[in-house]
Amino acid sequence: MYGQWQSQGFSGLFPMGYGDLNTPETRDKMSASVAVYRNIYTEDRFRQSYGTEDKPRGGGQRFREKIAERCRCSREACLHLLRERVPIFNWLPKYRLKKWILGDTIAGLTVGILHIPQGMAFALLTSVAPIYGLYTSFFPVVLYMLFGTGRHVSTGTFAVVSLMTGSVVEQLVPTPLQLNSSSPEAADFEAQRIGVASAVALLSGIMMLCMFGLQLGFLSTYLSEPIVKAFTSAAAFHVTISQLQSMLGLRLPRHTGPFSLFKTLASVIENLPHTNMAELLTSLVCLAILVPVKEVNMRFRQHLRTPIPVEILTVIIATGVAYASSLDSNYDVQIVGHIPAGFPSPRMPALHKLPEVAGDTVAITFVGYAVSVSLAMIYADKHGYSIQPNQELLAHGISNTVSSLFTCFPSSATLATTNILESSGGFTQLSGLFTSLVVLIVLLLIGPLFYFLPKAVLACINVTSLRQMFLQFQDLPDLWRVSKIDFVSLSVLPLICVNLPLLGKWFSDQPL
């Protein structure tokens, strides 16, 4: 026994007076003085000590008693449930004001400024007016701050979800060939479109809440990073092709259904002789500004306290130039038009369209949750905390359900703004408060000033925001060395997923 103690490093635990532990005298002295005493438990004493004496041997408590115990209401149980389902009551009392408030403020304001141009740009992908993109950049942010568990997750408009929703809107409410933007018919047309988009958001939120009730958050464990990257890369191609017509100033109908990507590309190539040179020049200038500055933000992000807000600066300058030069009347440049100021009034979505959008909404819900929980898990692992996938289902489900009542289209976590939120020094969900305040100020006061903003500028913002998705292919050499299966996932799946409408079409064809 002594040899085992010494080999395990316990020789220094013995009291002074034994001398050299390797001598025979010391060993004899230790053998005479060391003893081990242990209580011997009988079955009756064990039951008395641990309170199991009165319990039946067969199966413990009866089922009815277990149910009654779990359903017993108490103040402690209610507080625990409240902190678990509304996480802000759990982390806000522990908030370190002096340590975290500056980082959350700077990160929230930076992301809020970015939400303004991206919200309007992604609204064009959804085939609705830009103002609805600003609404979708406000309500989901506030709701996720209350119910979400990801400290570095930024919610709002996302290009992939917006593009898929726009395909549904175009199918059910196609764009008429001749439409005067100032006519009453145009207002009714916009109301129909946002009604369909809000119906998709409502049904998507209900689906997520049902998934939460069934505790299906574990499905997130089956989402590998290469699969998510493959899907988002394919979506980046879709968004880029869909924005070419706006960047070139072409008035083309939006193609939907299978192989819409190739149909749109063929239509753009066919109509290249009709390019509006003013809009092409506007697009080239914007790209020449956006791409280099974004590269600077990326390469020097460790040295910049906050990234350069090039998107909002481009929007402001382009709006001023378009107003001073009358680009809309002199050169037939498409502009954003009227953006109403004020808070949206509650309005029911187009409930009669729910059966028609159900199939596509399944795909949109899956994509939105997959991207959201993947981003939350990536940054949770990076900063050493954990998220609750089931709670994320509840958070995004409530966000989409409630937001749909305020003329919002489907929302999710976003790649670009989440990355900026984390790199700008955000610590907790409180950064969402400052993000929503920036968007609220624009909604109440500044929105109408963007009347002359060219749509080509928003298209350029859409394309440049997808830069990170295209750069994901740089991981292929590393994946080849690490995992051949992941390499195949990232290299082959984009070719399969590049026809995104087929995914929604497949779900639409399934019997409900």
Question: Any overview of this molecule?
Answer:
One of its GO terms (biological process) is transmembrane transport. It is found in: Membrane. InterPro entries: SLC26A/SulP_dom, SLC26A/SulP_fam. The chain is mainly alpha-helical and 512 residues long. The chain has one domain (101-509). It is 64% helix and 1% strand. It is built from 25 helices and 2 strands. Strands 1-2 form a two-stranded antiparallel ribbon. Helix 7 runs antiparallel to helix 19 and helix 23 packs across helix 24 (484-497). The protein is globular and about 95 Å long. The N and C termini lie far apart (71 Å).
- In which range does the helix fraction lie? 55-70%
Query: How many DSSP E strands?
Result: 2
> Mind describing the biggest β-sheet?
2 strands, antiparallel
- Taking Cα atoms only, what radius of gyration do you get, to the nearest Å? 30 Å
Average pLDDT over all residues: 80
Count of helical regions: 25
Sum up the overall morphology in one term: globular
Oligomer: single chain
What is the number of independent domains?
Answer: 1
Give the topology string: H per helix, E per strand: HHHHHHHHHEHHHHHHHHHEHHHHHHH
- Strand % is under 5%
Low-confidence stretches: 1-19, 52-60
Output the strand order for the largest sheet: 1-2
Tell me the span between the first and last alpha carbons.
Answer: 71 Å
